[in-house]
Design brief:
With about 260 residues, this protein is of the alpha+beta class. The protein is built from seven helices and eight strands.
Length: about 260
């Protein structure tokens, strides 16, 4: 006799269905909670889009695609600006000023010449007028060549020259002691190279406008001509040491301040 498979009672089926629905509901809730948690985590870890206004700083500045403003280094320094203002005002070149200065004191040689602005002291005319052509001093702040010439015994005279007109407006003997005079006299004997030769050596090396020439000694006690050359492109100043005996360039330094 074959066995007959019995179907579960309807009540049991209902219970099973109810349990199944509960399981599905719990699974659905769990999945929903998991999804919400994932969205929240994503919101915390994903960088926010930069919506800062043009006046905001921080990340808004970092992501800006606009061109940056010029850096401070692109502008001139105070010294460069002063050179740019002063050098073009001087209509008299260094060599003409040097020639004028040595003519003021017989049998003298140039030992120092510098382009600068006329000081209040110079306009006060504390020295003597030029013995050859007495002239009024230029106004304070105007360009002048301050020259110093020396005789063979080391005696120094200061000559102030208007850098626009080329006229001498003051000459004055320097206050020196015996040692100072002797030291300069010895230095003059070592200076085989003239200031003109020293300047030519310097400007062959560096192009520009000569603003200072001085007979001096370097750290090795060697007689040198120190020559300042200003570039009219960058307004930097290059100081070159020229051997006063051989005319060789011993050293050079660029002052970009």
């Amino acid at each position: 006799m074959s066995s007959v498979r019995r179907l579960p009672p309807l009540r049991s089926m209902a219970v099973i269905c109810a349990l199944g629905s509960s399981v599905l509901l719990m699974t659905g809730c769990t999945n929903a909670d998991t999804a919400r948690s994932s969205v929240a985590e994503a919101a915390q870890t994903t960088p926010a889009t930069n919506t800062a206004s043009p006046t905001d700083t921080g990340t808004a500045t970092a992501t800006s695609t606009g061109s940056a403003s010029p850096s401070a280094s692109a502008s001139m320094t105070d010294d460069q600006a002063e050179r740019k203002a002063l050098v073009p005002q001087a209509k008299v070149t260094w060599d003409k000023a040097a020639d004028t200065a040595v003519k003021e004191v017989p049998d003298s040689k140039l030992v120092d010449l510098e382009l600068k602005r006329t000081s209040a002291e110079a306009t006060a005319s504390t020295g003597s007028p030029s013995p050859s052509t007495p002239n009024p001093a230029p106004s304070q702040g105007a360009p002048e060549w301050e020259a110093k010439v020396a005789t063979s015994d080391g005696t120094v005279h200061r000559i102030d020259i208007d850098a626009v007109s080329g006229k001498v407006f003051r000459t004055q003997a320097e206050d020196q002691d015996t040692d100072d005079k002797q030291q300069l006299a010895d230095l003059l004997k070592k200076a085989i190279q003239t200031p003109e030769q020293a300047v030519k050596a310097a400007t062959d090396k560096v192009k520009g406008t000569v603003t200072h020439v001085e007979l001096d000694e370097n750290d090795d006690q060697k007689a040198i001509w120190s020559v300042d050359v200003v570039s009219t492109d960058s307004w930097d100043k290059t100081t070159l040491e020229v051997d006063a005996a051989s005319g060789d360039i011993l050293n050079q330094h660029v002052d970009r301040d």
